[in-house]
Write a structure and sequence with these properties.
Elements: H1 8-24, E1 29-34, H2 41-48, E2 59-63, H3 66-75, E3 82-85, H4 91-95, E4 104-108, H5 115-125, E5 130-133, H6 140-143, H7 147-155, E6 161-170, E7 173-178, E8 183-189, E9 192-199, H8 205-214, E10 224-226, H9 235-243
Parallel strand pairs: 1-5, 1-6, 2-3, 2-4, 4-5
Antiparallel strand pairs: 6-7, 7-8, 8-9, 9-10
Length: 244
C-alpha cells in the first residue's frame, strides 16, 4: 500500500481490489476489517457489494441473526441474491442453507457468538470462496482464552486470510494490510504519515508498542512518506454521511 486511504469510501474501494487479488490467487476464506468505532455495517456492505455483481443469484449473503437478515431483505428488496441468517439451529438445518448452485458467500459482521455455526457452514461450503466482512470472531469472553479457544483458532480461525485490515491506533498512527502486501504500521511525523514498519504477519500488541516507540523504519528500506490522509481526522464526518 503506497498510502493510506483518504476516506472510508477509498478504504472500501481498496478492500474490493484486495479481495479480488486474493480470490485470483485461490484464497477461499477471506476477511475484510474496518476497525473504526461506531461504524455501521450496512452502509459499508452496500459499498462492498459491487464486488459481486457478476455472480448475480449465485451469491448468498448471511447476517448474524434473523433480525438483521430481515432488515436487509427489506432494504435490498430488488437484489438478485438470497439473504439468510447464520442461525443457531441443528447442523441439519444449517446444511439446508447452502445449495449446490451457490458459488460465493458473503458473511456480514458475524461475531464470536456465531463461531460454532459459522464453522459448520464453512464445512458445508467446502472449497467455494467466502468473504467475512467486518467479523468479530475472537472475543475472549465468548470463544475463551484456554485450550478450547486455541483449538478453534488452529482449526478454523487460522484458515482465514486477512485480505484487508485498517485500524487507527490513535489520531497519529494506524495499522493496515492490503493483500498481497505486508502488514504496515503508519505514524504521523511532522505533519505527514510515514510507513515505519512492514511485517509478514500481524504485529502483536507488544510488538506494535515497540515499533511505535521507536518511530523509525523497521525494514531495510527507507520510510515511505505520503500525503497526510484524512481518514482519521474526518472519521466522524464520514460516519455521519454514511448513517444519514
Amino acid at each position: 500500500m503506497s498510502e493510506l486511504p483518504n476516506s472510508l469510501e477509498d478504504a472500501i474501494a481498496q478492500s474490493r481490489v484486495a479481495v479480488q487479488a486474493a480470490l485470483a490467487d485461490g484464497c477461499t476464506r477471506i476477511q475484510v476489517e474496518f476497525l473504526f468505532p461506531e461504524l455501521k455495517f450496512m452502509p459499508v456492505a452496500e459499498q462492498f457489494l459491487p464486488l459481486f455483481t457478476e455472480y448475480d443469484s449465485r451469491l448468498k449473503i448471511f447476517f448474524a441473526d434473523a433480525g438483521a437478515a430481515a432488515l436487509a431483505r427489506r432494504d435490498w428488496a430488488d437484489a438478485p441474491f438470497q439473504i439468510l441468517d447464520i442461525g443457531t439451529g441443528r447442523a441439519a438445518s444449517l446444511q439446508t442453507k447452502i445449495q449446490p448452485e451457490d458459488e460465493i458467500f458473503l458473511f456480514i459482521a458475524p461475531t464470536s457468538v456465531e463461531v460454532p455455526q459459522l464453522e459448520k457452514l464453512c464445512e458445508v461450503i467446502g472449497d467455494r470462496p467466502l468473504i467475512l466482512l467486518n467479523p468479530r470472531l475472537e472475543d475472549a469472553g465468548t470463544v475463551g482464552i484456554g485450550y478450547t479457544a486455541r483449538k478453534i483458532r488452529d482449526r478454523f480461525l487460522s484458515t482465514i486470510e486477512s485480505a484487508y485490515y485498517l485500524r487507527p491506533i490513535d489520531d497519529e498512527s494506524a495499522i493496515c494490510r492490503c493483500y498481497p502486501g505486508q502488514w504496515e504500521v503508519w505514524l504521523e511525523t511532522k505533519g505527514e504519515y510515514q510507513r515505519i514498519a512492514e511485517l509478514p504477519t500481524k504485529p502483536s500488541g507488544d510488538d506494535l508498542d515497540l515499533i511505535l516507540m521507536k518511530g523509525q523504519p523497521q525494514t531495510t528500506t527507507d520510510a515511505t512518506p505520503a500525503k497526510k490522509p484524512n481518514v482519521f481526522k474526518s472519521l466522524q464526518r464520514f460516519l455521519k454521511a454514511l448513517s444519514s
